Amino acid sequence: MLRGSAGAWAVLGPLLWGCGLSLLQGGMLYPRESRSRERKELDGLWSFRADFSDNRRQGFEQQWYRAPLRESGPTLDMPVPSSFNDVGQDGQLRSFVGWVWYEREITLPQRWTEDLGTRVVLRIGSAHYYAIVWVNGVHVLEHEGGHLPFEADISKLVQSGPLSSCRITIAINNTLSPHTLPPGTILYKTDPSMYPKGYFVQNTKFDFFNYAGLHRSVLLYTTPTTYIDDITVTTDMDQDIGLVNYQIIVQGSDHFQVDVSLLDEEGKVMAKGAGAEGQLQVPSAHLWWPYLMHEHPAYLYSLEVKLTAQTAVGPVSDFYTLPVGIRTVAVTKSQFLINGKPFYFRGVNKHEDADIRGKGFDWPLLVKDFNLLRWLGANAFRTSHYPYSEEVLQLCDRYGIVVIDESPGVGIVLVESFSNVSLQHHLEVMEEMIRRDKNHPAVVMWSLANEPASFLKPAGYYFKTLIAHTKALDPSRPVTFVTNTNYEADLGAPYVDIICVNSYYSWYHDYGHMEVIQLQLATQFENWYKAYQKPMIQSEYGADAIEGFHEDPPLMFSEEYQKGLLQQYHVVLDQKRKEYVVGELIWNFADFMTNQSPVRMIGNRKGIFTRQRQPKSAAFLLRERYWKLANETRIYRYGRGQT
Ligand code: GCB
């Protein structure tokens, strides 16, 4: 959420829900180079300091942003993108809670600082959790929430006079409150016989380490001063004609012309249009199909947008190319349909997590993960428990991996976290998320939360409002949240399109008793279906296994137990997928870091791959299963993307 809009929201918010309007200013197109746009990545080493002062406010009191950081005290080298927690040898920094300061000095190309027809934008891919940004000591913006990008037009600051360098300072605070997403609490421990003065810990109700820092690229990009600010594309089919509806928002001038062309993968123009809004028709369209569902999955067209405007300084053009997949999504009482065909989610839950870099974006890791997903034969994943990087979604578009895109609504269990303050923030996060991810064909459903205390009284109003707003913002996709509440007590379930249930039979209860899984799981599905008649997804199930631990007969934490537990689930899933179960997502793709606890052995070990992405026995089991399921549901005949 960009600070500044909150007041207006409080007044207008309730009026806007349900009518598709949004108060977010501006679009959030992925920064792509084009004939009119350049980009400069600021990845690499930044100067860094954590503010260890008692109140954590020394940086503000001494105004560390006013001069180079090295002048106000010692600094560390900190890689970006990366979490700051695991790169050092300092245990105190690993668990630091409070403000940390990042700084980078850069030289800008001369044209950027001298050409007043160039707009220079500073974009931060993700800063966890609250961020304040200064350029050359001038405050430019604040943003709440990790996982989603934010940006500021800094042209005036860098074009105000002769400039040799530009200093970017970003202060980031990872403190969570009952109203943040995810929520958290700070607990002061005041018993002087046990804790030193001022001692506090941060408590969270989610099961992953609260990594912090600049997790994704920071970059500068340029556009002309009259520019394409946002593009929204939705697609449909009429017989074999693909329909591409587009809407383009232009900023900077009222006198402009927009031309669009849709190109196929060979670069052939398939349709053309003029105007900021319209529909393109593609005869015999190639549809965007999920991985292994079609001989040519993930077909992507390119929508080339050209803006021409008359400005005081003469004619200006801006160009932007957006990948477009033509596909439809629909839900019936018992099916999830993609392009009118039943789709079964065979996939995983993931985390953005790896050793050393924490939640820092990393290309080799990303490519490895996609290679593993395809090796598994998986066709889907959920972005548990927050929005992943834009590059992840781009690869999903390209490979046909279907995404349930989840908000950071994880650990909403305190009554305060269902208050209007929290709800308002959650609504804004959904706006930011949809604004960023709306054009990805791979994203087929929004997930608003994971395991909220949806049995609490205020949960009904909370989810009713949140779901209505999400649907108003994007009527083209189904909406869900992931529950572990009893079917009779869940106050949010009436409003979702798909029931997503997490259960850990024979792990968190009846431990060691795999023989009860089939009965308990069948009962779970039957109860929910009887109550709601909506398609269901087993959105989590799994067991911890430490790689190399073997016990036969299986004992908990051995690879055999993990595998055996999955096999029991599969028996029931194979029955119910013939009726109304439309997917299964294993918990988890890979082992990941959590808070320390007596039930976590250096993190959560429910991965079917280790944290270093090596397979455990369960990975081979799932691979066999997923390829078998893929062969059963392959629907193609050879031709033009139609069955
Ligand atoms: C869950 C949570 C997930 C945990 C998992 C576990 O239900 O949704 O975040 O990591 O269980 O392993 O306990």
Q: Which key terms come to mind for this protein?
A:
globular, binds (2S,3S,4S,5R)-3,4,5-trihydroxy-6-oxo-oxane-2-carboxylic acid, 12 helices, Immunoglobulin-like, six-stranded antiparallel sheet, GH, TIM Barrel, 643 residues, beta-glucuronidase activity, signaling receptor binding, Jelly Rolls, alpha+beta, 21% helix, eight-stranded parallel barrel
Walk me through the structure.
It is a single chain. This protein starts with 5 loop residues before the first helix and ends in a 10-residue tail after the last helix. It has three domains: 36-173 and 209-221, Galactose-binding domain-like (Jelly Rolls); 224-322, Immunoglobulin-like; 327-634, Glycosidases (TIM Barrel), CATH 3.20.20.80. By secondary structure, it is α+β, with helices and mostly antiparallel strands. The strands form eight sheets. Strands 25-26-27-28-29-30-31-32 form an eight-stranded parallel β-barrel. Strands 3-2-4-10-7-8 form a six-stranded antiparallel beta sheet, with no helix packed on it. It is globular. The chain has twelve helices and 32 strands. The site of (2S,3S,4S,5R)-3,4,5-trihydroxy-6-oxo-oxane-2-carboxylic acid has 10 residues, from loops.
